[in-house]
Amino acid sequence: MSITLAISKDIPVFQRLHTHKLAYPRGLILSFNYDIHWIHRHSYGCYLVFLVMRAIRYIKYQGIGMVFHGIAGFVVIFFSYRPFINYYGSIFLLYEASTPFLNFNWFMDKLGWTGSKLQLVNGIILISTFFIARIVVGFYMSYLLWIDIYAVKELIPLRYWIVYGTANVVTSFLNVYWFGLMLRSLRKRFPSKSKVPHKTT
């Protein structure tokens, strides 16, 4: 299910990355675009019905971080209807680009393919996609977001600074934390040859 949701959100976002600033006469912070609105409306349901409720239900297995992730995404999409950061809201949905590979990794564990070459290839793609989408692009777009917000700071209510500032910090921290967990998991599944004990006869 999460694979379907991730793909159904990210493909439209990729198709609209070329959207020119002229489509936002009031700038990227306060303008509204109906194409982007459709993506947000779809994602709103995903975060409310699937991610948040599922994270709360399985908090014992997924941890509190997934709950914070879902709530932060839900709040950001909810406030975009004002409109507010209509453009940037869709860009941050690219965080989900790594989700299909994360699910493939889980499937391989369940199928008994743990430690296989196929899982190694998938793991490398997963970590690379996660790093590019959530760390490189995520931090860069966060920087541009706050530059644009500061340019119209007189028009932004204090509650928006608090809500979006908190959501941005929480998701950025979680992305770095999860990236570290992925690296440790990959090392655990595929230890270097120097660490593998040799059989003695």
Automatic annotation (TrEMBL):
Protein's name according to its UniProt entry: Tlc domain-containing protein
Any one cellular component term from GO for this entry?
A: endoplasmic reticulum
Keyword Iron in annotation: no
Upper taxonomic classification of the species? Eukaryota, Fungi, Fungi incertae sedis, Mucoromycota, Mucoromycotina
The answer to whether keyword Manganese applies is: no
- Please tell me the species this chain comes from: Lichtheimia corymbifera JMRC:FSU:9682
Where do transmembrane segments lie in this chain? 63-81, 120-141, 161-183
Q: For this entry, list what GO says about its biological process.
A: lipid homeostasis
Q: Which UniProt keywords apply?
A: Membrane, Transmembrane, Transmembrane helix
* Top-level division of the source organism's lineage: Eukaryota
* Domain TLC residues, every copy: 1-191
Q: What PANTHER family does the annotation carry?
A: CT120 PROTEIN (PTHR13439), TOPOISOMERASE I DAMAGE AFFECTED PROTEIN 4 (PTHR13439:SF0)
Q: Report how it sits in the membrane.
A: Multi-pass membrane protein
Q: What does the UniProt entry say about where the protein is found?
A: Membrane
The record's listing under InterPro entries reads:
TLC-dom, TLCD
Major localisation: membrane
